[in-house]
Amino acid sequence: PDPVPLPRFGRGSMGGTQSLALPLGKGPHAVGCTDVMVGHTRQGLFLRLFYPCLPRAGAEQPLWIPRYEYCGGLADVANRSRRWCAPLLSVAIGSCRVPGSWNGPFKPCSSGYPLIVFSHGLGAFRTLYSSVCSELASWGFVVAALEHRDHSASLTYFCTAEAGREEWIPYHRVPQGQKEFYFRNKQVHQRAEECVRALRLFEDISSGKSVPNILHQDFDLSVLKDSVDLSKVAVMGHSFGGATAVLALVKEPSFRCAVALDAWMFPLENALYPEVPKPVLFINTEKFQTPESVAKMKRLSSRNSQTKIITVLGSVHQSQTDFTFLTGKLVSRIFDARGTLDPYKGLDITSRAALAFLQRHLDLEEEFHRWDNLLEGIGDSVVPEAPLCRSNL
């Protein structure tokens, strides 16, 4: 089964109250963001960086869909004709902006911000989790949201050494006649390697190496040099990205814990489970998980008492993406993005549980332990473990 409930276009007006606002982070820091591309081949890296920044009046906010081409990529994932679907999406959501200061001045921090490497879900790309990434950055994290190059992003690209030439990497379905597990397992390994490479990038910056950002943004990566604490690094992701985060813990000892949002556990090989050395926080939505997937999570929690599984009631798989905030009828219909839970409340639960967990396992000196109850599944709209499971997706 495809892990992402794919868009369903229905009849009906494009109208409805179209809210195109993503929420501002609630933490004490203003949030800046920039795009970083390193290397001229697909072995390089592409990510959106969210970071605490100095507030700036009239700061420019970047578009949520970074370029029109991504509307075509979303149409491909939805199995719709690019010809009519891409312009429709562009009209419906093309004006939405990310509530962060584009290339905003980085706020230095002598003690160093902890780092989170974030992995997107199948058919997504680097900006579709801006609400949760901005929220974490507002509480004092540097968040590197990758755009994976394993053909699981709805679309991505790299810039070749030839001036100005872009090579696009489209979304790929499982080839006919190929077993889905083998196809996805190869992808999840590539994705986890990209998470490790993202960490290496920050190690290079911290060691004072010059890291050229080939997108020529007005943001010099060397400003991060003494402000990221590489002893406090976590990996996080949604769906396919949740499985990627679990695998990254196995590949890279520097990742101290993982937060997996509605993890799609299918692509991980069984031999891996005994190898996962660090704690994982699984934050599941009510409508997505299968008993098979939850059984895999429970294998990890039975080996590590610090691994936690909680379920957010009234949520659907897309509740953990930005789509849940785009409430127009069209978008809700295309992306099946709304559960019954208020999306702002869902984001609060997800981010607070993550912050409490990160404080515990990265040894942070913050007040995030005030949300520790959530890790036991205690609270409004959250329950421990995964009580309500459907046997098929």
TrEMBL record:
Signal peptide: none
EC number of the protein: 3.1.1.47
Protein's name according to its UniProt entry: 1-alkyl-2-acetylglycerophosphocholine esterase
Keyword hit for Ion transport: no
The keyword Hydrolase is assigned to this record: yes
Organism: Balaeniceps rex
Annotated InterPro entries: AB_hydrolase_fold, PAF_acetylhydro_eukaryote
Active site per database record: 239, 262, 317
GO molecular function list: 1-alkyl-2-acetylglycerophosphocholine esterase activity
Keywords: Hydrolase, Lipid degradation, Lipid metabolism
Coiled-coil regions listed: none
Single GO biological process annotation from the record: lipid catabolic process
UniProt xrefs under PANTHER family: PLATELET-ACTIVATING FACTOR ACETYLHYDROLASE, PLATELET-ACTIVATING FACTOR ACETYLHYDROLASE 2, CYTOPLASMIC
